[in-house]
Amino acid sequence: MSKQSIHSERPPIVAVLGHVDHGKSTLLDFIRKSNTVAKEAGGITQHVAAYEVVHKDKRITFIDTPGHAAFSAIRARGANVADVAILVVAADDGVKAQTLEALQSIRAAGIPFIVAINKIDKQNANLERTQATLLEKEVFLEKLGGDVPWAAISAKVGTGIEELLDLVLLVAEMENLSADPEKEAQGYVIEAHRDQKRGIAATLIITEGVLESGMAILAGHAIAPVRIMENHLGKALKKASFSTPVTLVGFDEMPEVGAEFRTFKNKREAEWARPEAAASARPAHAPDSESSAFSLPVIIRSDVHGSLEAIAHEVASIGDEHARVHIVQSGVGTISENDVKTALSGSTIATIIGFNVGIDPVAETLARERGVSIQTFDIIYKLTETLSELLLSSAPKRAVDEVFGKAKVLKQFSSRREEHVVGGKVSEGHLTRGASVRVVRRDVVVGVGKIQNIQTNKQNVDRAEAGSEFGMQISAAFEIAAGDTLECFSTTMK
Questions:
Q1: CA contacts within 13 A on the Cβ side of 93
Q2: Total structural domains within the chain
Q3: Mean pLDDT of successive 10-residue stretches along the chain, which has 494 residues
């Protein structure tokens, strides 16, 4: 009988976003400091990107830097690390460009949000005008004809903060957040840095399961044993549960902000699951993802820094581990002669991309003479569409594995050296004698072998179809166990 998962209530993870100078940091500082004084001894020992507070005996996790690259990178990867967002709007300034960018990010993430109208203590604050500007942008507030919860606050003096935190808990309760305490931990990298004394450290948000000492973390290509683990106060932890932010020290390389992490029983299992390890276990003609990756060089010029940042995040999501767009240089202002010279300086001529900017006549002449492509846009998605098409047409053909059959291993009959005999059942497609087969264990590729022989109904056959049971002889340099999944694949050039 299989063990049934028991889900527990999960504390909400909250992102605070809004226009610059509207009081995001002040709000976070007030919540953190007042809560720390009330609940913790010794104060904050270090600044990290996420921290926990307790309100009415319930935990809430706040992401400290969601408005910049971290939140955008996470969203670009399709990961909704935050459960609830707080959109901060200043009562003396109203809705601004970055307010709308933040609102777009929240809606793209598909999470509920609360509006915090801040700075109500200021002399020129105008609550009604701010509410009206929100209405114009289709943010319909509760008690004003809509369903978006809101609170009038002063992050500076603390007015309305209790009510705001009450709203966070209420929205979280309506979302029925839950997680499985029996699972091994998974989540996302929120921040990463190099500590001169201790090495590479990263702040992680656990979204599922439990993380314990002795395990190992794989985040993208980076691996860390769970030895030095600390909470947001810098205090050592042996165990951490879902929604908890932790700092983990000891990564073998810098993990990417926004990368999803998985947990393994030990470092060896994590190394097997690392993308490079999986690639090396494939046939010799399959390319290594990093060493053979194609890079399309581009130079980007934009009208304002906000647009430039948005473009950079969109460009980061184009391509895959085999081919990607590389921003050689970027900046705000007109496309210049220096941009053209930079485009010509590399081994491959870079494409120059402009967003809502003009082209200097000297630069235009030089680009035409030297064969440098300059393209300008006023809509971001058109820009990214063009870059995607350019990458597709420029990247060299590569070997791609296509799975045409899957099966479940039901029994291991024998295993000696590199010859293994197993029994199983085909769940999808078909398995073919002589084909390569990938062995997957708990969603991790163990390695690749080759099917030497197949039997169905005690008869040698060339292939086993979906629904049929089989006996199979597989050549592989690793053990194959009951419960493993077999993926039969072929390699084609694309």
A1: 16
A2: 4
A3: 61 84 81 54 39 89 58 47 90 86 83 94 91 91 92 92 95 90 86 75 89 92 92 89 90 81 91 63 36 82 75 86 88 88 88 93 92 91 90 81 93 91 96 94 91 94 95 94 94 77
For residue 230, the enclosing domain spans: 186-273
**Whole-angstrom Cα distance, residue 479 to residue 44?**
49
CATH number of residue 78's parent domain: 3.40.50.300
Residue 236 exposed, middle or buried by CB count within 10 Å (0-12, 13-18, 19+) = exposed
Phi-psi region of 86 (alpha: psi -120 to 50; beta: other; left: phi over 0): beta
Residues 319 and 424 in one domain: no
| Nearby residues of 173 by Cβ (< 8 Å), 6 or more positions away | none
In 91-177, beta strands by DSSP E: 113-118, 150-152
CA distances from 101 to 19, 62, 98, 289, 337 (A): 8, 20, 5, 34, 32
Could you tell me if 329 and 377 lie in one domain? yes
- Residue type present at position 327: I
Residue 392: closest CA among 285, 290, 494, 286:
494
Best CA proximity match to 50, nearest among 189, 195, 252:
189
Quote the pTM value. 0.53
